[in-house]
Every structure is written in structure tokens, then in C-alpha cells.
TrEMBL record:
PANTHER family: PUTRESCINE TRANSPORT SYSTEM PERMEASE PROTEIN POTI. This is Spermidine/putrescine ABC transporter permease. Belongs to the binding-protein-dependent transport system permease family. CysTW subfamily. Coiled coil: none annotated. It comes from Reyranella soli. It is a multi-pass membrane protein. The chain crosses the membrane at residues 12-36, 75-96, 105-132, 138-162, 183-206, 239-265.
Length: 280
């Protein structure tokens, strides 16, 4: 078989993609390497020894910054936002399958926060809490601010998923005597489980690294993005690179969990399908 001759356009696009990958992952790799400097290492090359000293220092009490506390707050906030985003998006997807009065207005109102700049939403929520005499905090005002970012994406994804969903599965379940709740629990949710996992992980990552909507809503305790920003102006040791390596590792862990979840769901379906075939 004679291969097609690749023209200059192919190599131009390949070179552009290579530069894009280098630009995207080059700084991350640099931070990863520099985070393993020795105790007397600096912020630039050449490296002065190799150790995990700065990772240990990261979890110790420091004069500037609270990495452990900010990481814990961001993780808790991200999980809470993820759960609410999945539940609200799934419920809205079920509700919007049938047209009702005011549905178009509610839909555009729900996704309007994607158009408004994030910093203005954060400022507005912070001012509202101040006018009401409430204290802004990462578990209240920041939680609401993050939902204005994650919920519209969750809604759009679930609307697209339900648009392709075959409702004959539900009709078959009802014909067999299933109640509405049993139909949702044993038919709809298992079929849409990969999409629900995707919405959940997407919501978590959006909340986990959100900076602008946390700026005026997190109160006196920083979330991780705010802590990283503060450390860039105060910390002059490779502990900052260790922090970047750890946060990048968490992001890749989320991706790995998504892949494992999708694989588990696919194999579970295949196993159930083969069991059903044998029973027939």
C-alpha cells in the first residue's frame, strides 16, 4: 500500500501543534523539575541538588501562607459544588424535557452568568453580603459564586444528553410496573451515569481552580488559587514550585478518576449485557 505524500500544509500544522504542546506543558515540566531542588536550591536553573525537601516544607507551618488549610478548603468546596451541580443539572434536565410556561426565560436566566465577567459576579456577591451585614466566607458566599460558574455548564451538558436520550426505555419500564422513582433510579440514572460522572468532575475542576469568583467572596480564609496568588508575591523559595506540582498532580488525579469511572461503567454494562444474553 502506497502512503499518501504529505504536503507542506501537513508539516505546518504538525509544527504548530508541537509548539502548542510545548507552550502548554513546558512550564509545567519546568516547575516539576525545579520543585525537586535541594535545600539550598533557588528559583532558577541550574539545580542545586535533588531532594523532596520543599514538599516536606510545604506541609509544615510557614511564616507566609497556609497551603494545607487552603487545599482542604478548596477540596471541600469543590466536592460540595460538584454534588449540587450534578443534582441540580440532572433535575433540570428532567424538568426541561417538557415545555412549561417560562421555561425559556428560566433557561436564559440560568446561563446568563456565563456572559457576565467573573470578577463582577464576585464583586457583586461580596457587596451584597456586606449590605446585608453578613460575613463572606468560602463555605457560603464563595460556594454560591462557584455555582454561578459550574451550574450553567452542567445544565448545558445535561440538556444535550437528554436531547439524545431515548424515552422508550422509560416507557418500557413503566409498562413492566415500575414507578416514576424506580424508572429514574434503575433506568435513567444507570444509562446517564457516564454523563453524570463527567458533569461532576467538570464541576469539581471548575470550582477547584476558580480564582476570580473567589476573590471577593472567600472571606478571611483563602482558597487554594488565592493562596497560590498570594505566595507568588511573598515566597522566594522552590516551595512555590512544590505547590504547583502538588496541585497539578491533583488535576491529573481527577482525570485518572474520570477514566477509571468510565472504564468501570463500560465493563459493568458489558458484563450485564452478557449475563442477560446467557439468560435469554
Amino acid at each position: 500500500m502506497i502512503g499518501r505524500r504529505r504536503g507542506p500544509g501537513y508539516w505546518l500544522l504538525a509544527g504548530f501543534f508541537g509548539l502548542f504542546v510545548l507552550f502548554l506543558y513546558g512550564p509545567t515540566l519546568t516547575i516539576l523539575v525545579l520543585s525537586f531542588q535541594g535545600p539550598s536550591g533557588g528559583l532558577t536553573f541550574p539545580m542545586n541538588g535533588v531532594s523532596v525537601h520543599w514538599f516536606k516544607n510545604l506541609f509544615e507551618k510557614q511564616m507566609v501562607g497556609d497551603f494545607a488549610g487552603s487545599l482542604q478548603r478548596s477540596m471541600i468546596l469543590g466536592v460540595a459544588v460538584m454534588l449540587v451541580t450534578v443534582a441540580a443539572s440532572f433535575s433540570a434536565g428532567l424538568a426541561f424535557r417538557s415545555r412549561f410556561k417560562g421555561s425559556a426565560f428560566i433557561f436564559y436566566l440560568a446561563i446568563a452568568s456565563l456572559i457576565v465577567p467573573s470578577i463582577l459576579i464576585s464583586l457583586g456577591i461580596g457587596l451584597l453580603y456586606r449590605v446585608l451585614g453578613w460575613d463572606a466566607a468560602w463555605y457560603s458566599s464563595a460556594f454560591g459564586a462557584h455555582l454561578t460558574w459550574t451550574l450553567p455548564f452542567g445544565l448545558l451538558i445535561m440538556f444535550a444528553v437528554f436531547n439524545r436520550f431515548d424515552r422508550r426505555y422509560e416507557e418500557a419500564a413503566r409498562d413492566l410496573g415500575a414507578t416514576s422513582w424506580q424508572t429514574i433510579r434503575f433506568v435513567v440514572i444507570p444509562i446517564l451515569l457516564p454523563s453524570l460522572i463527567g458533569v461532576g468532575l467538570f464541576g469539581f475542576t471548575l470550582s477547584y481552580d476558580e480564582f476570580a469568583r473567589s476573590l471577593y467572596t472567600s472571606g478571611t480564609f483563602n482558597t487554594l488559587p488565592l493562596e497560590i496568588y498570594g505566595m507568588t508575591t511573598n515566597v522566594t523559595t522552590p516551595v512555590l514550585y512544590a505547590l504547583g506540582t502538588v496541585t497539578t498532580g491533583v488535576s491529573f488525579l481527577v482525570i485518572a478518576l474520570a477514566l477509571v469511572s468510565f472504564t468501570w461503567v463500560r465493563r459493568r454494562r458489558q458484563r450485564h449485557g452478557s449475563d442477560a444474553g446467557k439468560a435469554a
